[in-house]
Structures are given as C-alpha cells and as structure tokens.
Amino acid sequence: MIIISGPSGAGKGTLIERILQRLPHLCVAVSATTRGMRPGEADGEDYHFLSQDEFTRRVDAGEFLEHVTYAGNRYGTLRSEVERQLGAGRSVVLEIELRGARAVRERLPDAVSVFIEPPSLEELVRRLRSRNTEADADIEARLAESRIELQAMEEFDHKVLNDDVDAASDELERIVDRVTRAAAG
Fold first, then answer.
1. What is the largest CA-CA distance in the chain?
2. How many domains, the chain?
3. I need a labelling partner for 79 at 20 to 30 A (CA). Which of 85, 90, 121, 151 fits?
C-alpha cells in the first residue's frame, strides 16, 4: 500500500491521476467524507459522501482503516474499499492527510509513504484560491493545517516537490512503480 499525502492544494490528486494512466495495476481507494459534493464530483468515484450520522455509525462499527476531522469535515478510508481493491490484485494508493497517514502507518508499518510538497506557501495559497470551491474561512483553515503538514514532511519515506507537474508526476511514477514491483516480488 502506498500513502500519498501533503497539504491541500499541493497537487496530490493531479499527480495521482497522471500516474494512474501509466500504471494500470494501480488504483486509488475512494475516501469517505462528510463535506458537501463539489460541482462535477460523483458519489463513489470522487468520494463516498456520507452524512455525519452515517459516518459516525461506520466509525462506531469499526469500518474505517483511518478517519480524521480536517478543516471542519470528516474524512476516512473504509476498510472494505481497500480490501476490495487488494482482493482484485491491484496495488492501492491512499490519498490522505497527515493524521490519516500517521494512523495507517501505525496499523500497516510496511506501507510506503510519499509527501507531495508545494513549491511555496504562496503558491499553495494561489492554488487554493484559484479552485473557487471554498470560502475564505475554509481556505484559511486549510492553510493552518498545511503549515502543520509541511513541518511533518520528514516523517515520510519519499518527498516529491510539485513545482513542475510533468517532472513531479514522472518522479512519483518512478517511486510508485519501484514500490509496487518490489511488493509483487
């Protein structure tokens, strides 16, 4: 299993999308969230969108590999999602934030972790604002979390600086391909 983490706006989703096209044995475990669906998103594809009550019920039932509250919303990785993909013989990527990454590494110490680093905090702010998907207060909450995440990047097995999307996706592909080939034996 490969954990990919980094601040909101670092480009994790973009880089993962690119390597999925190049590595057919790879898939992303779809996370669950209580946040509202953004335009263009689909339930079960981008996220499993759950109500607060449903999320809590599933936490209480032990259905999550990890779960956190991030910028006022709950996020988590359903065990069933990961098991389904692994059962199909695919290598699984988790796109999760710092606390989730720590929780997964604690439960699955063999998981390989990759931190996606933005070129600068200023660029991170620009990327978040250019999305036009969140209110200023939500962006500020994400930036506060980002500062904490950036301080923890040394905890990860690998770091990928996303200052050039082509070079960063090539580097991430090399790391993921090497890890998945080694795991396949």
1. 48
2. 1
3. 151
